[in-house]
């Protein structure tokens, strides 16, 4: 990975260095399980889409056709 770093704090001159990317944290092989709050937020989002978004979309379609 090519990294550009200033030579000093207030300097406008930079040095380019090549660093190994192995210092990055490893990505997990399996995603973390959802917590109760995340499931509640997902459920609230789904209900909001179904109860507000779908009727508004249907109204727009029917209002524009007539």
Can you tell me about this structure?
The chain has 66 residues and is an alpha+beta fold. Helix content is 45%, strand content 15%. It is built from one helix and two strands. The chain has a two-stranded antiparallel sheet. The longest helix has 30 residues, at 36-65. The protein starts with a strand and ends with a helix.
Q: Can you describe this structure in just a few lines?
A:
By secondary structure, this protein is an alpha+beta fold.
Instruction: Please count the helical segments.
Output: 1
How many E-type strands? 2
Characterize the largest beta sheet: strand count, sense, and whether it forms a barrel: 2 strands, antiparallel
Q: Report Rg.
A: 25 Å
What is the structural class?
A: alpha+beta
Look at the structure and give the mean pLDDT: 82
**Helix content class:** 40-55%
β-sheet strand percentage? 15-25%
**How is the largest sheet built, in terms of strand order?**
1-2
What topology emerges from the helices and strands here?
Layout lengths: L1 E5 L7 E5 L17 H30 L1
Antiparallel strand pairs: 1-2
Features:
1 helix, two-stranded antiparallel ribbon, 66 residues, elongated, alpha+beta
């Amino acid at each position: 990975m090519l990294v550009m770093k200033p030579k000093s704090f207030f300097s406008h001159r930079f040095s380019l260095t090549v660093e190994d990317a192995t210092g990055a944290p490893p990505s997990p092989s399996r995603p973390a399980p959802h917590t109760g709050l995340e499931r509640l937020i997902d459920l609230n989002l789904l209900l909001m889409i179904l109860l507000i978004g779908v009727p508004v979309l249907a109204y727009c379609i029917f209002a524009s056709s007539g």
